[in-house]
TrEMBL record:
Protein name: ABC transporter ATP-binding protein
SUPFAM superfamilies: P-loop containing nucleoside triphosphate hydrolases
Signal peptide: none
Record CDD domains: ABC_cobalt_CbiO_domain1
GO MF annotation terms: ATP binding; ATP hydrolysis activity; ATPase-coupled transmembrane transporter activity
UniProt keyword terms in alphabetical order: ATP-binding, Nucleotide-binding, Transport
Similarity field: Belongs to the ABC transporter superfamily.
UniProt keyword annotation of Transport present: yes
Keyword Glycoprotein: no
Record-linked InterPro entries: AAA+_ATPase, ABC_transporter-like_ATP-bd, ABC_transporter-like_CS, ABC_transpr_CbiO/EcfA_su, ECF_ABC_transporter_ATP-bd, P-loop_NTPase
One cellular component (GO) term of this entry: ATP-binding cassette (ABC) transporter complex
Domain ABC transporter: 6-236
């Protein structure tokens, strides 16, 4: 597995005040961890900082201080190199599906690796078939279900063969059937997977779980113990 290092990472942003002045708000504070497990889940309340933590891994967010390293790459210094290692799947797939149809979206992802248009089309259809969604290849992305869209977004990201797959709340918009389908797909991937989630069943599938609370790691350990800690934290 690829080693991911967070070393004293803080993220601070400017925030308006009631008097129209400016203050600073810490999104993450002195977060340190080395993540090299195959499956890592991050759980926490809304606004706790878990999504920001994931966005640090490919430069979608920048650390104010500290160091973020992915497979030896300093993400702050070379985010483009980090993005060759890290694929990112957003909560709402429509925010990243940029082409009219699933097949075209995968073809766009494959453009750099496969120059021939016919070969690119054939490979796109193969990748959709692997996710059991070949039947939507030429449908509008607006006409397919939320679960199908999420699988298309996942296939598009995996098409560039990242070493690490990062997912931000991947089951939020899914019904039970598609949520369970996504869990099965994630379990079978060869990539290292990091995900932020409110879905505690999905978190329990991980090898390690981080609980983020008010921008800090409040618990780091085995899934069952982490979920129990989080339930107690929310109950308190």
């Amino acid at each position: 597995m690829v080693s991911i290092v967070l070393d004293g990472v803080s993220v601070v942003v400017a925030a308006p005040t009631a008097s129209d002045g400016r203050s600073v708000k810490a999104i993450l504070s002195e977060v340190s961890a080395t993540l090299d497990e195959r499956r890592v889940a991050v759980i926490g309340a809304n606004g706790s900082g878990k999504s920001t933590l994931l966005r640090l891994l490919n430069g979608l967010a920048a650390a104010t201080s500290g160091r973020v390293e992915v497979d030896g790459i300093d993400v702050g210094k070379d985010p483009r190199a980090a993005r060759t290692k890290v694929g990112f799947v957003f909560t709402d797939p429509l925010s990243q599906l940029v082409m009219p149809t699933p097949a075209e979206d995968l073809e766009l992802s494959l453009r750099r690796r496969i120059r021939d248009r016919g070969e690119r089309r054939a490979r796109a259809l193969e990748l959709l078939a692997e996710r059991e969604i070949a039947h939507v290849a030429d449908s509008s992305v607006y006409d397919i279900s939320g679960g199908e869209r999420q699988l298309v977004a996942l296939a598009s990201v995996l098409a560039v063969e990242p070493a690490i797959l990062v997912l931000d709340e991947p089951t939020t918009l899914l019904d039970l059937r598609h949520r369970e389908r996504l869990r099965q797909v994630l379990a079978g991937l060869q990539q290292q997977v990091l995900l932020a989630t409110h879905d505690l069943d999905l978190a329990l599938d991980a090898d390690r779980v981080l609980v983020i609370d008010e921008g800090r790691i409040a618990f780091d350990g085995q899934p069952a113990a982490a979920v129990a800690f989080y339930r107690g934290l929310m109950g308190a």
